[in-house]
Amino acid sequence: MPRFQADEIRALEVSILRHLGASQEHAELVVDMLIEASLVGHDSHGVHYITRYADRIKRGIIDKKAIPEITKETVGTAIVDGHWGFGQVTAKRAMEVAIEKAGRVGVGAVGCIHCNHIGRLGAYTSMAAEKGMVGLMVVNVVHPTVQPFGGASRVLGSNPISVAAPAGNSNPFLLDFATSAVAEGKIGWAAMKGEKIPMGWIVDHEGHDTNDPLDFSLPNGSVDESEGSGRMLSFGGRDSHKAYALSLLMEVLAGILPGAGSTADKDHHLYENGVLAIVLNIQILTGLGEFAQRMDSLIQRVHKEPVRAAFQYHHIQVPGEFETANHEKRLKEGIDIPETPWKQILQLAEELGIDHDFGPLRS
Amino acid sequence: MPRFQADEIRALEVSILRHLGASQEHAELVVDMLIEASLVGHDSHGVHYITRYADRIKRGIIDKKAIPEITKETVGTAIVDGHWGFGQVTAKRAMEVAIEKAGRVGVGAVGCIHCNHIGRLGAYTSMAAEKGMVGLMVVNVVHPTVQPFGGASRVLGSNPISVAAPAGNSNPFLLDFATSAVAEGKIGWAAMKGEKIPMGWIVDHEGHDTNDPLDFSLPNGSVDESEGSGRMLSFGGRDSHKAYALSLLMEVLAGILPGAGSTADKDHHLYENGVLAIVLNIQILTGLGEFAQRMDSLIQRVHKEPVRAAFQYHHIQVPGEFETANHEKRLKEGIDIPETPWKQILQLAEELGIDHDFGPLRS
After folding, report:
1. pLDDT of A101-129, one tens digit each?
2. How many interface pairs between A and B have CB atoms less than 8 angstroms apart?
3. What mean pLDDT is predicted for residues B221-244?
4. Domain layout of chain B by residue ranges
5. What is the C-alpha to C-alpha distance for residues B11 and B26, in angstroms, rounded to an integer?
6. Does the model's pTM come out above 0.95?
7. How far is residue A184 CA from its own chain's centroid?
8. Which has the closest alpha carbon to A245: B121, B4, B174?
């Protein structure tokens, strides 16, 4: 499988977005987010997404020039209208505004409308943690792929949640996951690599368990929209009414509350991400020193507990350790990209007439 | 099994708390919350809890006279010190303050310290929904009963979450559940009734699946603290790293952020509930009319989707329907209380010298 250093992909992908008409600032922001997702191990949201964004720019779904705008505001809340620009630009602005408000009044809640795909949520919630605050973000993904508890049809999106919080000497806490069994892109990623997936992620169109990603995705990694294709399950599997309830909650919090709409609303665009960001100011609520110390105590306690014989790790994991470990490793060793998406990226670069150093030997 | 109308239990239980020294206002509040929990079908948090509270009052864990106090405050946030009074009194005050703040600045975030067991979270979040707001509450339960993902020991509490939101013509949305497979009390409830529990709720002390509640609870419904007792699983089962992450999140949000502390902190009292309430003002964020209409659309869509052949309901459920259906039924038909807790309640009443109409025929 082709492997690249983050920096060489960055240059190529920034160039792609620049050729498509994005500003240098926006191009760098979007590409940095994709690279970060690949580095931390969430390939589903990583560098290969550039071809999808390019396609959406060409089709007018992403307005490459749009600047987000605050359309409603109080000292504690705001609505950011993304004007269909890059989702990353909109969501980053929303998180910045929420951090600013929490800085002043202890809490900030900011929703987004007209927002495209924002990528990995942890990138935004970590912005708050880096400022010594707790950051929460929820998203409703309009594109329905997940069957509800007791159901037999695609109703809900993968509807993710992320919460980040700083610690003292320990790795920061970073919860970041889809309320579906996995992010949709992880099935597509397996399809692109020609690999099987674990049982429990999807069912086929008749509702039977399957480990074949092609029951859900096309070989190019996108979702199979044809009649005979399968459905994702909520995390915890088909009997997990609680994960289903959380998925539906994201429709309420991220979709309906900011005014973006839910999966049931026709004005809610197929590629739209409804977004709600909530930031809580640790210093105002309790005090940063005490918070950091208690976080370290909790994490140390969890690390000391016994693990089951068959467990894959030496100690019980705290959310965020997966990402940190991957980041260290991949920054050194590089990012793997399967043949299919890599060819798509090179093809796009060639279409745009971009010079690059990736000769046939590298691809 | 003994069955009673809500009103007759209310009078008896209010009298019990009055005899134990609680004010009329606090006694009514606590008992109303317990009765409401029984009515909506969450017996685990229902009327039998009165005997536990009586025990905690006698042992000085609950200060029956304490009045909660705001110790820190901004326009958007507050910390409510419960001074170890009734948890219900503290949590209700916290939610009232959060609603008031959200009314003014769009969002309110209020944490509790020195707070006893607050009971069913949905009672508080529904207060916000009734005011046309979205109410969220999370709790960290110090008492460790749940094994972490990959673990083999009791580390985390049942750490529940609730979110309530109003709808238009539909039943209000009410998500209210433990991040453990079930609320601890549901296992105790089965133990008291002498019934088996579904597989997947607990494992025995060696980590094997079991459907015997006595592997976790004592016959009187309380948690078995002895060496050879089992552990609860997170919802979604032993491989559900996402539910485990949510459980740990409640330690951060509800325990550490308000200053109550986590399961790892020695100053965090065994019966303490760390609490965080967040209220979001719908009218300020998007507009109540639009919100209600979109909620109805979402709920109607979910109700129209096909159900699996073996599904126990005629339509896919929206969180809150379970509670509403039970409430209607039990308000008419009465509340069932198993022999064991009912005898405990009558014994308590007799100890306190309370006259009651419940003759031997009724018990």
Report:
1. 999 999 999 999 999 999 999 999 999 99
2. 264
3. 91
4. 69-288
5. 14
6. yes
7. 10
8. B174
Question: Residue B70: which region, alpha, beta or left (left: phi > 0; alpha: psi -120 to 50)?
Answer: beta
More confident residue, B139 or A237: B139
Quick check: B148 and A257 CB within 8 A? no
Q: How many CB atoms lie within 10 A of CB B241?
A: 18
CATH 1.10.1530.10 for domain A1-65+321-363, yes or no, is: yes
**pLDDT, tens only, A264-295:** 998 778 889 999 999 999 999 999 999 999 99
User: Is the domain defined by A182-232 classed in CATH 3.40.1400.10?
Assistant: no
Contact B285 A109 (CB under 8 A): yes
Q: Which of B177, B176, B228, B184 is nearest to B202 (CA)?
A: B184
**Residue in A278, A307, A313 closest to B152 by CB:** A307
Tens digit of each residue's pLDDT (9 = 90 or more) over A143-200: 899 999 999 999 999 999 999 999 999 999 999 999 999 988 899 989 988 999 999 9
For chain A, the average pLDDT equals: 95
> Hey, are the CB atoms on A148 and B305 less than 8 Å from each other?
yes
Neighbours of B276 (CB within 10 A): 27
Tell me which residue has tokens 């039977």.
A208
The CATH code of the domain at B69-288 is: 3.30.1370.60
Instruction: List A residues 22-81 in contact with B (Cβ-Cβ < 8 A).
Output: 72, 74-77, 79
Task: Find tokens 């959380």 and name the residue.
Answer: A246
Q: Is the dihedral of CA B329, B333, B339, B343 positive or negative?
A: positive
* Model pLDDT for residues B233-287, shown as the tens digit of each residue: 999 888 899 999 999 999 999 999 999 999 999 877 888 999 999 999 999 999 9
Could you identify the residue written with the tokens 């980590």? Answer: B207
- Exposed/middle/buried for residue A9 (C-beta within 10 Å: 0-12, 13-18, 19+): buried
Handedness of CA A255, A259, A265, A271 (dihedral sign): negative
CA distances for A73 relative to A77, A82, B284, angstroms: 6, 15, 8
Task: For residue B255, report the phi and psi dihedrals to the nearest 5 degrees.
Answer: -95, -60
What's the per-residue H, E or C state across B25-94? HHHHHHHHHHHHHHHCCCHHHCCCHHHHHHHHHHCCCCCCCCCCEEEEECCCEEEEECCCCCHHHHHHHH
The rounded distance, in Å, linking the Cα atoms of A285 and A279 is 12
Q: Is B151 on the interface with A (CB under 8 A)?
A: yes
Distance, in Å, from the CA atom of B7 to the CA atom of A180, rounded to the nearest integer, reads: 43
One-letter identity of residue B352: L
DSSP per position, A237-295 = -TT-HHHHHHHHHHIIIIIITTTS--TT-TTS-TT-EEEEEEEEEHHHHT-HHHHHHHH
For B161, list phi and psi in degrees, rounded to 5. -135, 145
Q: Does domain A71-175+247-319 have CATH number 3.30.300.30?
A: no
Contact assignment for B150 to A307 by CB distance below 8 Å? yes
